[in-house]
Design goal:
Number of strands: 4
Bound molecules: iron/sulfur cluster
Strand order of the largest sheet: 1-4
Helix content: 10-25%
Low-confidence stretches: none
Shape: globular
Structural class: alpha+beta
CATH architecture of one domain: 2-Layer Sandwich
Largest sheet: 2 strands, antiparallel
Number of helices: 3
CATH topology of one domain: Alpha-Beta Plaits
Radius of gyration: 14 Å
Order of helices and strands: HEHEEHE
Strand content: 15-25%
Mean pLDDT: 84
């Protein structure tokens, strides 16, 4: 069995997890982003590149660039809002998509 760490010093996730552990893929009826009623919109001016949204997104649909800036893969994001909840500087706003 692989020996995975059970706890990490706060600065270590940046260096340990450069790649996601799983990737989103189409379900039986195609991409899953169409389930969404609210979508996360990232304000890049407020973002401090802490990557918490990337770490917590359960769908792996926060995409991390090499400089630790982030953007959303709307093909698969389901709009759960976890990324907005964990953002320490309120840089992510959940915006209604469906009227
Ligand atoms: S709304 Fe949910 S699924 Fe979409 S990017 Fe944020 S955490 Fe991920
Ligand atoms: S949690 Fe907020 S501040 Fe941190 S990377 Fe995501 S959008 Fe930027």
């Amino acid at each position: 069995m692989a020996d995975y760490p059970t706890s990490l010093p706060i600065e270590e996730p940046r260096t340990l997890f450069k790649a996601p552990l799983s990737m989103p893929s189409p379900g039986a009826s195609g991409v899953t982003g169409f389930w969404r009623t609210m979508k996360p919109v990232i304000n890049e001016d407020k973002c401090i590149k802490c990557i918490l949204c990337w770490l917590y997104c359960p769908e792996d649909t926060i995409i991390r660039r090499d400089d630790d800036s982030v953007y959303v893969d709307y093909e698969y994001c389901k709009g759960c809002g976890i990324c907005a909840d964990v953002c320490p500087v309120n840089a992510i706003e959940m915006v209604r998509e469906v009227v």
